[in-house]
Design a protein that fits this description.
The protein is 64% helix and 0% strand. With 382 residues, it is an all-alpha fold.
Length: 382
């Protein structure tokens, strides 16, 4: 994973849970997901179409030569025609075939760009239909949604034209889906939910790195407090059921708070600092992301730091200074520096709680020496 900048600058990279380049590769048949709505009657033509799509998906994985033959023969328009099928099994097979195509190494240059109408993915109606299939509600089918959420993830990671997806309503659709998934985990212990949550979190995280988001008011489309509350419901679910997904949720929280006082305010008004601090012991990766989110809040100024101190933050930071991981310690130093800058009283509290002794432990570490010295000077002299 590409680590976050100490000040929480957003990065399109995301923590790896399922390797993006490998997901779904290999021969595959129908997965047999249960439907949330009655399936349309199937005939021989639908079964044939489904089998053809899985076969195409398996062929696409095999080699670039196969893909070179399929593209001029009109595979993208053919897939765009299939996505209007009323049959869930056909749609799921289509999602599988499309995901293989979008993972091809040449996809960003030859498959995704809207070079001419209909002949590429972004030049077709596929993105709009994918987003329709991700709309929360009684018609949402988990198996179909998982396939197309990953398809959307691969398109977004290509960074070819994410502005187009945003104008099609990708942020609002995914934001509503996130709210729906948070509600679902409260109602059920379905272990399969993470299969959809993971790509949805990645899509949102990476879309928020786009400059166009702010231009179109995209962050407001996420309905701030509702999204933050939903994200914490999911984080608690991950903590209990799927800890490997915690970095995914925290990366989204980092991207939400990096340049947005609104989301930082939501974090404070919902009293979510303490639940966030409770995640620090989970792992070094999780600790760094938690500390980065807190840096995003602290750097917004004195009014925000007033909510961080007094409270449990300072004792928690003294504990993280005992970590051996230099990235965790470095991010702790960054947060303390911001806290002392905007809340000088916190420095005195830090000194009274043996803060200098905690810093001395890292004085000889080359990567941390300068920041340790700077923090010592700030604590002692203000």
């Amino acid at each position: 994973m590409c680590g976050p900048d100490p000040r929480g600058n957003r990065d399109p990279a995301v923590p790896a849970v399922i390797p993006a380049g490998d997901r779904g590769k290999g021969e595959r048949e129908g997965s047999g997901h249960s439907s949330s709505r009655p399936a349309a009657p199937r005939d021989a033509a639908d079964l044939h179409r489904e089998l053809c799509l899985y076969t195409l998906g398996n062929l696409i994985v095999e080699s670039e030569a196969v893909r070179r033959q399929l593209l001029p023969q009109g595979i993208v328009p053919a897939l765009a025609a299939c996505i209007q099928s009323p049959h869930l099994t056909v749609l799921e097979a289509l999602g599988y075939a499309l995901s293989q195509l979008l993972q091809a190494k040449e996809a960003p240059e030859k498959i995704i760009p809207s070079t001419s109408a209909g002949s590429s993915v972004l030049g077709s109606t596929l993105p709009q239909h994918m987003l329709q299939l991700l709309q929360p509600g009684p018609k949402l089918n988990p198996g179909v949604a998982v396939e197309f959420a990953w398809c959307l993830h691969y398109i977004i990671c290509s960074q070819v034209n994410n502005a187009l997806l945003i104008t099609h309503g990708a942020l609002s659709t995914l934001g509503l889906l996130l709210l729906d998934l948070a509600g679902a985990v409260q109602r059920s212990e379905d272990a399969g939910l993470e299969l959809l949550v993971c790509p949805v979190l990645r899509c949102l995280s990476n879309l928020l790195t786009e400059a166009v988001v702010e231009a179109v008011g995209g962050q407001m489309q996420l309905r701030d407090e509702r999204v933050v509350a939903a994200l914490f419901i999911l984080l608690q679910f991950f903590l209990q059921k799927q800890p490997s997904l915690l970095p995914e949720g925290l990366w989204l929280l980092n991207n939400l708070t990096a340049n947005s006082p609104i989301f930082c305010t939501s974090l404070l008004s919902l009293d979510l600092i303490e639940p966030l601090l409770q995640l620090l012991p989970v792992s070094n990766v999780v600790s760094v992301l938690v500390l980065t989110v807190l840096c995003n809040v602290a750097e917004k100024g004195p009014a925000y730091c007033q909510h961080l101190w007094p409270g449990p933050l300072l004792p928690s930071l003294l504990e993280t200074l005992a970590f051996s991981d230099t990235e965790v310690v470095g991010q702790s130093l960054e947060l303390l520096q911001l806290l002392f800058l905007y809340r000088p009283e916190a420095a005195q509290d830090f000194l009274q709680q043996s803060g200098l002794q905690a810093l001395e432990r890292h004085e000889e570490e080359a990567q941390l020496q300068d920041r340790v010295h700077a923090l010592q000077q700030t604590a002692l002299h203000g």
